[in-house]
Amino acid sequence: MDSILCTSRSGSENLLNYLSNVIGRKKENSPFSKDKRITFDVLKEDNFYKFIISDTSVDLSDMFQFGEKIIEKSNIFILLDRKDLNKQAESYAFKKYKYGNDVSKYHIKEKYEKMEKDVIDNAKKELKEQKKVIRKLSKKYNKKIYYYEDIFYGNGIDELSKELKVNINTNFKNLFLSNFNKERVINTKESLI
Predict the structure, then answer these.
(1) From 139's CA, which of 28, 65, 146, 190 has a CA 20 to 30 Å away?
(2) DSSP letter, residue 151
(3) Residues 73, 31 contacting (CB under 8 angstroms)
(4) Kindly report the CA angle at 18 between 17 and 24, in degrees rounded to 5?
(5) Do 157 and 177 meet the contact criterion of CB atoms below 8 Å apart?
(6) Residue 68: which of 152, 163, 143 has the closest Cα?
(7) Domain coordinates in residue numbering, the chain
């Protein structure tokens, strides 16, 4: 199995879509989300998975141990995070506040509403814990962390493609990793009828 192990709201859904198409593997998004309490034995060897580090399974409740287990089971694993904690926390707080644990609705493109400071601060606390675990896994396994900002705005996909020894597919890159795929609608213009 191949996997992306990431923090929440780090662009992992679009990266999963891109890589599963380029590598030619069936994708599965967050099989351990809070409402689906499954065990590791259901993971399939020929799938490409995305795992949010906080979506621990019934087998393990500790995020670091969960990450280690995913890495042990993976042929390829990618660590993914986001540099801009403020935007990440705003996105996480908004989606969690609006949709709770229904992650199926986390990828709706929409204009974000302003959130209360304490809600965003709580999201930051959760994300800092996730980031700490990703950094700890990176150090233990001597594995580079890729970042949302580099994948979508820099040369991160070039570096990742070299590491994975796959060619960049421009069609899939445009389809999944272009800026228009961002879920936060920032510039909305209202028209008069």
Answers:
(1) 28
(2) H
(3) no
(4) 85
(5) yes
(6) 143
(7) 2-86+131-179
What one-character-per-residue DSSP string does 80-91 give? Answer: EE-S-HHHHHHH
- Tens digits of residue pLDDT in 34-63: 555 556 777 888 999 999 998 776 666 789
Two tokens, residue 58: 């019934």
Separation of alpha carbons 167 and 173, rounded Å: 11
Alpha carbon distance 182, 146 (integer Å): 17
The size of the chain, in residues, is 193
For residue 135 the two structure tokens come to 């950094």
Are 27 and 100 contacting, i.e. CB atoms less than 8 angstroms apart? no
Written as six digits, the tokens of 167 are 């060619």
Contact 152, 180 (CB under 8 A): no
Determine the Cα–Cα distance for residues 64 and 67; give it in Å rounded to an integer. Answer: 5
For residues 40 and 32, what is the distance between their CA atoms, to the nearest angstrom?
Answer: 9
pLDDT along the chain (193 residues), means of 10: 94 94 87 60 86 77 90 95 96 82 71 85 95 98 97 93 95 85 51 38
Can you give the pLDDT at residue 192? 37
Model confidence, pTM: 0.87
Q: What is the pLDDT of residue 189?
A: 47
Q: Tokens standing for 76? A: 């390829």
